[in-house]
Amino acid sequence: MNHLTDEELGAYMDGALKGRDAEAAGRHIANCQPCREALAELAAQDESLKPVLAHDPGEAYFERFAARVDERIAAAAASRARPAFDLGRLFRSPRALAWAGGVAVVVVGGGLALLTSRESLLPGLRDRDLAVRLERSAPGEVKPAPSSEIQQARPAVPPPSVDDAEGTVPPASPGPVQEASGVAKPDAATDKSEGALDARRTPAGSLAKEQAGSPIETPVPLARPARDAKARADEFAPAPSPAPPTTSAPAGARPASPRRATEVRRNEAGEEVPVRPPTERGLAPTPPPTTGEERAGLVRRKRFAGLLDAAKKSAPTETLGAMNARDRARAYSFAQPPAGTTAPGALPETAPARSAEGETRVCGEVRDAADRPVAGAQVVLTDLGRTTTTDATGRFCVNAPSGEHPLSVMAVGYVESRQRVRTEDAEAGVRVTLAAVSVLQEKGMLRTGRAAATRAQVVTPSELHDGYSVLSDTIRRVVREAQRIEADAASRRSAAHYDMAARAWERALRRLAEGPLEIETRRHLAEARYRAWEIAPNSRRALAAVEALTAYAGRAPGGPGRDEAARRLQRVRP
Amino acid sequence: MEPAARRTQSGDREEEAGLLRAAQAGDTVAFGEIVRRYQRAVYRVAFALTRNPGDADDLAQETFVRAWQAIGRFRVGEPLHPWLARIATNLAFSLFRHRKRRPETPLEPLVEAGQQWGVEDDPAERVEQDERAAHLSAAFAGLKPEHQTVLALRVVEEQSYEEIATTLGVPVGTVMSRLSRARAELKARLAARTGERP
Hints:
The complex is a heterodimer.
Chain A: H1 6-13, H2 19-30, H3 33-53, H4 59-81, H5 87-90, H6 94-119, H7 123-126, H8 128-137, H9 147-156, H10 162-166, H11 174-182, H12 188-201, H13 203-213, H14 229-236, E1 264-266, E2 272-274, H15 292-303, H16 305-314, H17 320-335, E3 359-368, E4 378-381, E5 386-389, E6 395-401, E7 404-410, E8 417-422, E9 430-434, H18 443-446, H19 450-453, H20 461-468, H21 473-492, H22 495-510, H23 516-535, H24 539-555, H25 560-572
Parallel strand pairs in A: 3-9
Antiparallel strand pairs in A: 1-2, 3-6, 4-5, 4-7, 7-8
Helix pairs in contact in A: 6-9, 9-11, 9-12, 11-12, 12-13, 21-22, 22-23, 23-24, 23-25, 24-25
Chain B: H1 3-24, H2 28-50, H3 53-70, H4 80-101, H5 110-118, H6 123-128, H7 131-141, H8 145-155, H9 161-168, H10 172-194
């Protein structure tokens, strides 16, 4: 039998081969080592592509999302309704300004052309040869451009419409002008229409065309519209009828919509936060660290920016106000790079943003009983809810206000360690030694038997929600989010969605101190990790599932839940 | 799938049909609910196609604006997700074309973006998100738009070939060959970047 083609291999992997084809491909692959290798390689490539293409902007982002869509729809409707040419708006957007410049050039050029054409009425200048001779004889004089060229340029730039002024028409002001004059055609009479067409081929024009005729404008993939559909659309949509080309919004391009006219920055949650002008930055932001040690901290923080951000978010003092303050602080650090900082612009997202004064950096090291560093251990200041993870060398750093704090360190396969740290003593470094979990070796833990028959007790979202109701809004929100994603994953039976659910549960977990809810959350995490593995097994999911199941089983009180976890653990383990 | 889950799904579908009809009649609140239901899916597609949080946000938002403007033409009862995905991919296409003429560097380098947004995830992923991810991202960005789209819909959205065909408005056979070419091309580009033999 011939080898499978790449196409067949891919289709087999994607479950797109049906019936006999699938069977035949399966049989062949079972007996063909090179095919198996190719298949594994294909799967690995897809798998590694996933994290590159996926991104979770966080719950706060999605909470505001619908409202922002609403605003944008309203803005789009308003911009279409606005009748007059708003000069002020024109000068607020650089793109629009560039457009205006282009238009001005054309107007001036057009004026010149008009003058020239008048002059050309003079019998002597009408003769081209004579004009050229005249020009040669007086090279220093201002030379009126040959009329044909100017006229070509003139119609090439579409007149500024209302939307141009807002910058919703895509950019590239020089584009149309240059292109138009570049398409010099000898016949000036046809230039008008030709030029206009050329303008349509420019970026602005191409988008306009899409708007007018492409599927973007009429995204009706499955359903041919009912006869009256268009009428309905016209009736109800805020922006009726296909827009004329000049009002096209640039598709994916960042349109400088009215909202964007003010400078806006995005905080970690993906929300837009207006940047206040310098005069409003009343609160003096904490200056960026300048000492070498702190810079080193910055570099570390840059590497683990996401983790730290997560930890910051979990801090109880974190409010929207604080976040805004941080954004202001960042904007400030952009505007005034402090002397002595090596590359101020290079670390935009990690620019110092300590909201609380007097915080000390508590750093330490986590090692196991054999003095080997423990990577990926979760370090929590339980009173503050601040969390971080140890790096590959077992080191961690976390900010804390002065005083004594309970510190808890957890890692898969180790007994949780709890101790109290004093920030004053922390300079020397906190040293945490973790003992291996012994329960993993116990018989009961890995017993299957009766447990196999007992399904894990399922906690309904409402029950769980009630359980969490004693906690803060922030945590409840995160939990709700995780529940939603998990329900979504369950209905789609999609491994990728279970991955997302697991991450959501991990986020919830980071905000929880140990206790029954923490264990419940771990159970959900383990469930999501296991399901993801079950649907689409791969080494990464297996590892994550083992990790989550072990963490849950190591903490859960005996019972069907733990037995089920043990059973699953056995299945996942190679 | 358990019958219970199926029931919920069909219940959801009826509810969704109600929302869509209300939205077609101009009910912005109903449309807001539709947005909330699909915002994650649309954002996923948008991010996969732009790999830049800023552009993804813009694309996702614009997708819903266009959806609202064309909601009257949507036939209630058809699945909404492919329709939205189609709007998003079409918008992304014009973004690609636009960028081709006016290449624009992303707001933040992609690796930075990965570190900034992705590290919160599990440690196993963090390990993957280093150099190879940067190469992969760059290799992916070099693919043709239609190859990027088909890979994104398959790998991120895990759409079936039929769903992808619906979303893109092409035959299933085209999806199969396009996906295969996209994967081969990605592999070759990645090999060229990392110096490995393809």
